[in-house]
Design brief:
The complex is a heterodimer of chains A (117) and B (114). Chain A has 117 residues and is an all-beta fold. In chain A, strands 2, 4, 5, 6, 9, 10 and 11 form a seven-stranded mixed beta sheet that branches. A four-stranded antiparallel beta sheet of chain A has the order 1-3-8-7, with no helix packed on it. Chain A is built from no helices and eleven strands. Chain B is mainly β. Chain B contains no helices and eleven strands. In chain B, strands 2, 4, 5, 9, 10 and 11 form a six-stranded mixed beta sheet that branches. In chain B, a hairpin with a 2-residue loop joins strand 6 and strand 7. Chain B is globular, with a radius of gyration of 14 Å. The termini of chain B are far apart. Classes of the chains: A mainly beta (117), B mainly beta (114). Chains A and B meet through strand 4, strand 5, strand 9 and strand 10 of A and strand 4, strand 5 and strand 9 of B.
Chain lengths: 117, 114
């Protein structure tokens, strides 16, 4: 079945550690996104990528890094510079890329919950 | 950037009732809007997508409408069931092409009482 797979589902980090969250999609979508969700707040965009080897900062990129070496993969690294990393992280994808958004419909993975110990 | 407001923040109704969830936005220059459902600890599931040229979309017991002139969208749920209990989020893709994705509301937490 086509979809978006995020791993791990749960992750614990010690202070000062970097951790990487995986996001893989087999929908053949050009665009991929990382959002952060905190209780009582809407989803906030961390990074997005419209095409392989290109990505852009979102609203809250500080303390995070990404790569887009393959169309189907968009991993997110939460670095030690992120002061409040405990959150629920959601990866998404859509058809639209640099050729323009087709219909913009966004599809999400099941999320990864990161907790700082 | 768009501001998206969802009212009410929480709603609890008996099973079988028809209900309406509201979503308002500040700028009518939108490309499309999307309604999602989120179960606790899970990702978002797309329910309905309305293109800017459309007024409404229907899927089963769900109907979503879009009124750009008034800056509002509504999600109508008919004959509610306990399985409809979840958080419902609306999100807009702006007319700039949406390269940076959607702007989300904070959601309405819905409880359907058996």
């Amino acid at each position: 079945d086509g979809g978006i797979t995020q791993s791990p589902k749960y992750l614990f980090r010690k202070e000062g550690q970097n951790v990487t969250l995986s996001c893989e999609q087999n929908l053949n979508h050009d665009a991929m996104y990382w959002y952060r969700q905190d209780p009582g707040q809407g989803l906030r965009l961390i990074y997005y990528s419209q095409i392989v080897n290109d990505f852009q900062k979102g609203d809250i990129a500080e303390g995070y890094s990404v790569s887009r070496e393959k169309k189907e993969s968009f991993p997110l690294t939460v670095t030690s510079a992120q002061k409040n990393p405990t959150a629920f992280y959601l990866c998404a994808s859509s058809i639209g890329g640099l050729a323009g958004v087709v219909n913009g419909e966004l599809f999400f993975g099941e999320g990864s919950r990161l907790t700082v110990l | 950037k768009q501001e998206v407001t969802q009212i009410p923040a929480a709603l609890s109704v008996p099973e079988g009732e028809n209900l309406v969830l509201n979503c308002s936005f500040t700028d009518s220059a939108i490309y499309n809007l999307q309604w999602f459902r989120q179960d606790p600890g899970k990702g978002l599931t797309s329910l309905l997508l309305i293109q800017s040229s459309q007024r409404e979309q229907t899927s089963g017991r769900l109907n979503a409408s879009l009124d750009k002139s008034s800056g509002r969208s509504t999600l109508y749920i008919a004959a509610s069931q306990p399985g409809d209990s979840a958080t419902y989020l609306c999100a807009f893709l702006d007319s700039g092409g949406g390269a940076d994705g959607l702007t989300f509301g904070k959601g309405t937490h819905l409880i359907i009482q058996p």
